Amino acid sequence: MKKIGMLTIGQSPRDDILPALREIMGDGYEIVEAGALDSLTLKDIEQEEFRHDDYILISRMRDGTEIKITKRLILPLLQERIHELEEQGVRLIVIMCTGRFPPFEFKGLIVTPQEILKGVLKGALKRGKLGVVYPAVEQIHMAKPEFGREEVEIYADYLSPYEGDDELNKLTVRLAEQELDLTLLNCFGFSAKVKGAVAEKTGKPVILSNILVARVLKELIS
User: Which of 43, 174, 196, 212 is the most buried (most CB within 10 A)?
Assistant: First the structure.
């Protein structure tokens, strides 16, 4: 049976994400989960000091607690988990985060979602206005350098994937006011509920990053 490594930047397991991915991918494989922060506690993470130039990422602990972490903290931890997955016979790994990552040491394939998302966006939106929703306000400054291009205007906003309906409703109103042509929910933690609410309010297509990557992954494993 094929083994697929699902590697989160937080702690595993990710029961909030995996069921929807499994439904799309179907049967005939074994998922092996791992998390960059599996060996750390919340107290360990809370002691991290942030710098003004840090690349901030959002994830969650095993108990559902939302956390903000830096890429410099998790990169070596991700590499450790990759080696561990490789020792378990995994030859295909998905990094369950839409952030930008460098190449890792691994003898198999590592799927990093941002490149997939960029390819789909370039193919789907030649000109117009793109909305990019991040999970934290500290990330919205990255929207233009990461997704902006000639003839495509960028509007960036944010919503914690773990917020309630009030914040989601406020977001959909802001997005609707922008008259967007397409919206990207740029975090693996966003759910189908968020996509549905944004699509209904804006009346335009919405890309849910985790589901899009699951469809690509299905092609890789079939």
Answer: 212
Full-model pTM: 0.93
* Domains of the chain in sequence order: 2-112+211-221 (3.40.50), 115-209 (3.40.50.2300)
Residue type, 203: G
What burial letters (b/e) apply to 135-170, b meaning 16+ CB within 10 Å? bbebbbebbeebbeeeebebbbbbbbbeeeeeebee
How far, in Å, CA of 39 to CA of 201, rounded? 41
